[in-house]
Design a protein that fits this description.
3 helices, 72% helix, elongated
Length: 85
């Protein structure tokens, strides 16, 4: 039905479409479409402790934080109960 002309056209489209896309957008895609400071720096991310001492120190830090927040919450609840009466 379409004959060889259709096949030549399809082949041309398969070849020319990627080439035209690459020509239009160019090779500096990182500069054109990147968002500056999108990914956090390594020092800003959480670091998983692997050594035994690091794990124990991290657990101690989390325990101290939990106890501090608990104490703060209990103080706020005590103040709120005193105001309600």
């Amino acid at each position: 039905m379409g004959g060889p002309n259709l096949e030549v056209f399809k082949f041309g489209m398969y070849i020319m479409f990627p080439i035209a896309t690459m020509y239009y957008y160019g090779t500096n895609l990182d500069k054109r479409f990147s968002v500056p400071d999108f990914w956090p720096k390594p020092e800003q991310t959480n670091r998983i402790p692997f050594e035994k001492e690091e794990i124990h120190s991290e657990l101690e830090r989390l325990k101290q934080r939990r106890l501090y927040l608990r104490e703060k919450r209990l103080q706020n609840e005590g103040k709120n109960e005193g105001q309600d009466s």
